[in-house]
Amino acid sequence: MSKKIGFIGLGIMGKPMARNLMKAGYSLVVYNRTASKAQELVQAGAQQVGSPKEVAENSQIIITMVSDSPEVEEVILGPKGVIQGLKAGSVVIDMSSISPVVTQRIAAELSTKGATMLDAPVSGGETGAVQGTLSIMVGGDEEVFNEVKPVLEKMGKSVVRVGRIGAGGFTKLSNQIIVAAALQAISEALVLAQKAGVDIQLVYEAIRGGMAGGRTLDMKIPMFIQRNFEPGFKMDLHIKDLKNALLAGKSLGVALPSTGLIHELFTACRAQGKGQKDHSVIYTLVEQLAGL
Predict the structure, then answer these.
(1) Which site from 89, 102, 165, 233 is most exposed, i.e. has the minimal number of CB atoms within 10 Å?
(2) Both 15 and 149 in a single domain?
C-alpha cells in the first residue's frame, strides 16, 4: 500500500489521529470543511486540498473521521465526494461512528468503482486519539484489512477485525451502550454517596479494586471531582450513537430498554445546553434529580 494517505475530518479525534500517522512517516493529504483546522498539520508537512474528491485523487488509502451518517455520505458520495476522484484499488476506511446500514450502502456504491471499504470506528476518546491507544473495531474484507492494519496500528493499541462490512459499526454501537450504561450507573452511585455525605474520592478508592472498578470509572472520577466537563467525547455524539443503536435494535428486532431510558436522560442533559460538554456531564443531571 502507498505511504500517501488521505484524511478527511480534523476535529477533536481526527486531528490527533492524523498527526500520529504523520509521526509514523506517512505523507498526508488532508481536507476539513473548516479549512483553518488543517493549518497545524499543513505546517507539519501535510498537503491540504479543497474537497474530498481531491483527497481521493491524491491518495490510495482514504480515511474519513466525521460526525454522523449524513456527513459520511456527503464526503464520500456527494457532488465533490471521494467517489468522484476514486481510483480502482483504493481503500476507503471510515472511522466515524455511524449507522452500519448506511456503511453497507456506501460500500456497495464504492465497489462499482473498483474500490473497497472498511468500517473502523474507534473507542478511547480524545486521550486515546492523542496517545495513539485507541481501540479500533473493523468490518470488511480480511485481505484488505491485513493490508491496511499497519496504518491502523499507528492510531490504535487494539486493532481487531470483527467481521464483514458493517460489523465494526455494530461493535461500536455495542461499545457505546456499555459506556453509556456505565456512566449512568457511576453517576447514580456516586450521587447517592455524595448526598449521604461520603467523600466520592474515598468511595472511588474503596471500590476501584473490586467488581465495580474499570476504565470508565478511572477516567471519569477526576472529571466529577474537579467539575471539569470539557469534552473528550461530547454528549451530543453519544446521543447520536445511542440513537443509531436504538434504530439498529428496531431493524433487528432487539429490545434495548435500558439504552432507551439512558438515551432520554442524555437528551434531557442536552436540553439544558450541555450537548457540547463531555458525556460525563450526565453526573450533573443526576445531581439535580437528587436535589443537590
Answers:
(1) 89
(2) yes
